[in-house]
């Protein structure tokens, strides 16, 4: 995605266009989150878009749109529910992300009220529950109506559903004649996990996080479904009241508790920004131990008379602010360290965590990379995290961004349990007991068991049947695990003897869980189809370390036939001699890949397994590039921009068939750049380096005579 220009650099035309785009994107995000209970973007992305919109409006106030997101609260209520007009609007909160924002919040309030800097102002600080806002209306002590926030003015009538929640009293004693209670419906981590387990057992949709589960459960048309869901409720505010609850925010919260509502025990009084930030830090540290999701801390001016003087902006109160946690970070407990063994034998440490929500996703596992990372150093021996090692029982900071696998970023030594011992990385494989060695220059320790190691065997089999390898219809990772566990398949060759070994395979397989006669018959037919396999796919399917899909096809084109290739590997087994030099001479094959290849074929057990497999296959020869008369043979070509007469894959395949090497980047070694519409930095760099540039028509003319 192109980097947006700074707000100060925007022209008026650019600002107008971007405000329209932001209005549409934020409206869609609001609908997805509030109405459909299926967020399309993360909270952090949403906050960034709203912040950008506000900044542009501040610079160009005359361009503010009638449908400005700055004036929006939530989303329009669903047509599936009856509508409720709130007697007092349900507003949202302004957000703060830095400590300086809290000091500025306090300064703004003092300035608005005309108070001196040393005048005492007290605030409440409470966890910001990540759930669904709900308003409960009581008349004469009886619950008469429950409504979602909706767009702030009009919400959805969910009275029947609210009555099923145990934390919501149906009657109150000693309450004002009219009392509207505002709060948050949420779901605990334990209840969320149990719900998802039940959903999976029934084959129903599973929820992404507790907030989605709570929102989806409350907004059911059938209240019996809501009743079956473990929803909870925290009260923290009020709307219309026939008489005041108290003189202060804290006093009103205590009154709500006395009336029978659950209020958050972490709500505290703070004397100014320093104490507010201290409470924020305390709550952030406790976050993973709460058992429910929070995404920040809410500060409110305690004096209700001063709240009334401050009043409201269009969508937010002036007397309150939400101090959000960093979206990608959270603290939690590292319960244990497990070792997983991968396809190449790598021993990968995994942190098992007390579940915590990070960036809208519940995280219970995180990578610890390798033994050096656990010890607090990088692969060169330099300190990381200030040299702090990671131990079981530690209080750790978890980092997650986008689709990046969560990782442990830091350790709080002040919370390290007494007696916590440094982690000892295993020197034997936890799966098969074979020695686990770490070669010089390698950051990873690897099991030497090969196919006798069940973890490696299963992962190799999964890779073998993957889409870019044999891609056998009906035989995926789940089926591989089942067959391996039941000892039907131990190595790739066993796949092609399944029907033979079990006689009438269809009859035996169809009676197994998850299989029927048709699916069993289809599987055996799919296996038969894959007896004919291209050389490149076979080589990739073997899962040899450092040998990927592209390299496999490159090697296949170079050697042509499987027999010639295996003979060459035998001749190069000692990593010396003419065949070794020939292998290293292939453009794109380095010494690390070459050693991995010859080692795989030189190991007796692995070679015998490969030979047993190929005895059942017809390996198609790879077409060697016909480079006679080719104008691009031996040249390095780069394609950039949009190709209009062929796909990028077709262009690449054609170039390689003519003996060219296709690269993804331009360098001094590039011979030719084919630039289509939209060509950018690559074409510019080619110009700077003096590399020849032609368009797609020029490319077709060039190769047309070859």
Question: How is this structure best described in words?
Answer:
With 706 residues, this protein is an alpha+beta fold. The chain folds into six domains: 66 residues, Orthogonal Bundle (Helix Hairpins), CATH 1.10.287; 230 residues, DNA ligase/mRNA capping enzyme (D-amino Acid Aminotransferase, Chain A, domain 1, 2-Layer Sandwich); 87 residues, OB fold (Dihydrolipoamide Acetyltransferase, E2P) (Beta Barrel); 81 residues, 5' to 3' exonuclease, C-terminal subdomain (DNA polymerase, domain 1, Orthogonal Bundle), CATH 1.10.150; 87 residues, DNA polymerase, domain 1 (Orthogonal Bundle); 69 residues, BRCT domain (Rossmann fold, 3-Layer(aba) Sandwich). It is built from 26 helices and 24 strands. The strands form seven sheets. A five-stranded mixed β-sheet has the order 2-11-10-3-9. The protein has a five-stranded antiparallel β-sheet with strand order 14-13-12-15-16. The two termini are 38 Å apart.
């Amino acid at each position: 995605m192109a980097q947006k220009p700074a707000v100060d650099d925007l022209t008026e035309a650019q600002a107008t266009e971007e405000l329209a785009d932001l209005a549409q994107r934020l409206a869609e995000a609001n609908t997805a989150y509030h109405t459909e209970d299926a967020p399309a973007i993360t909270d952090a992305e949403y906050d960034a878009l709203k912040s950008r919109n506000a900044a542009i409006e501040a610079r160009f106030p005359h361009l503010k749109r009638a449908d400005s997101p700055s004036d929006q609260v939530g989303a329009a209520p669903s047509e599936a529910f009856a509508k409720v007009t709130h007697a007092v609007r349900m507003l949202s909160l302004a957000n703060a992300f830095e400590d300086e924002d809290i000091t500025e919040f306090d300064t703004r309030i003092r300035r608005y009220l005309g108070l001196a800097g040393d005048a005492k102002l007290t605030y409440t600080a409470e966890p910001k529950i990540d759930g669904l806002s709900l308003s409960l209306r009581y008349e004469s002590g009886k619950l008469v109506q429950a409504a979602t926030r909706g767009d702030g003015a009009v919400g959805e009538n969910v009275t029947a559903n609210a009555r099923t929640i145990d934390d919501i009293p149906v009657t109150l004693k000693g309450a004002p004649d009219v009392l509207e209670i505002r709060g948050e419906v949420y779901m605990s981590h334990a209840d969320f996990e149990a719900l998802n387990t039940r959903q999976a057992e029934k084959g129903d949709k599973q929820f992404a996080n507790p907030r989605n589960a709570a929102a989806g459960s409350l907004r059911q048309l059938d209240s019996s479904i809501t009743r079956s869901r473990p929803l909870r409720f925290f009260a923290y505010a009020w709307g219309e009241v026939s008489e005041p609850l108290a003189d202060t925010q804290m006093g009103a919260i205590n009154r709500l508790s006395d009336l029978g509502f659950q209020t958050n025990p972490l709500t505290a009084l703070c004397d100014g920004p320093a104490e507010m930030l201290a409470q924020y830090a305390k709550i952030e540290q406790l976050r993973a131990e709460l058992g429910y999701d929070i995404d920040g801390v809410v500060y409110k001016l305690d004096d209700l008379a001063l709240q009334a003087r401050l009043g409201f902006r269009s969508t937010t109160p002036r007397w309150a602010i939400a101090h959000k946690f960093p979206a990608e970070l959270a603290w939690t407990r590292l319960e244990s360290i497990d070792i997983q063994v991968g396809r190449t034998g790598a021993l990968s440490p995994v942190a098992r965590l007390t579940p915590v929500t990070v960036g809208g996703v519940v995280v219970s596992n995180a990578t610890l990379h390798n033994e050096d990372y656990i010890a607090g150093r990088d692969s060169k021996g330099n300190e990381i995290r200030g040299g702090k090692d990671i131990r079981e029982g530690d209080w750790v900071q978890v980092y997650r961004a986008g689709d990046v696998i969560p990782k442990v970023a830091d350790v709080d030594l002040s919370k390290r349990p007494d007696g916590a011992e440094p982690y000892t990385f295993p020197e034997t494989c936890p799966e098969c007991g074979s020695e686990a060695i770490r070669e010089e220059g390698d950051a990873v320790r690897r099991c030497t068991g090969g196919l006798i190691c069940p973890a490696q065997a299963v992962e190799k089999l999964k890779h073998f049947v993957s889409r870019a390898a044999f891609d056998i219809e009906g035989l995926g990772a789940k089926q591989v695990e089942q067959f391996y566990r039941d000892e039907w398949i131990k190595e790739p060759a066993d796949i092609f003897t399944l029907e033979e070994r079990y006689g009438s395979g269809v009859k035996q397989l169809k009676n197994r869980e998850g299989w029927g006669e048709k699916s069993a018959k289809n599987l055996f037919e799919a296996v038969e189809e894959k007896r004919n396999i291209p050389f490149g796919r076979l080589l990739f399917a073997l899962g040899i370390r450092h040998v990927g899909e592209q390299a496999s096809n490159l090697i296949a084109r170079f050697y042509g036939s499987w027999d010639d290739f295996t003979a060459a590997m035998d001749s190069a087994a000692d990593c010396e001699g003419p065949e070794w030099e020939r292998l290293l001479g292939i453009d794109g094959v380095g010494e690390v890949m070459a050693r991995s290849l010859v080692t795989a074929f030189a190991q007796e057990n692995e070679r015998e397994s490969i030979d047993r497999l190929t005895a059942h296959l017809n390996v198609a020869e790879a077409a060697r590039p016909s480079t006679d008369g080719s104008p691009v043979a031996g040249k390095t070509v780069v394609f950039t921009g949009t190709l209009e007469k062929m796909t990028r894959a077709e262009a690449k395949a054609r170039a390689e068939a003519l003996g060219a090497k296709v690269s993804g980047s331009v360098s001094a070694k590039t011979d030719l750049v084919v630039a289509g519409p939209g060509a950018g930095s690559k074409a510019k760099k080619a110009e700077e380096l003096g590399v020849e540039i032609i368009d797609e028509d020029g490319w077709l003319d060039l190769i047309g005579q070859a």
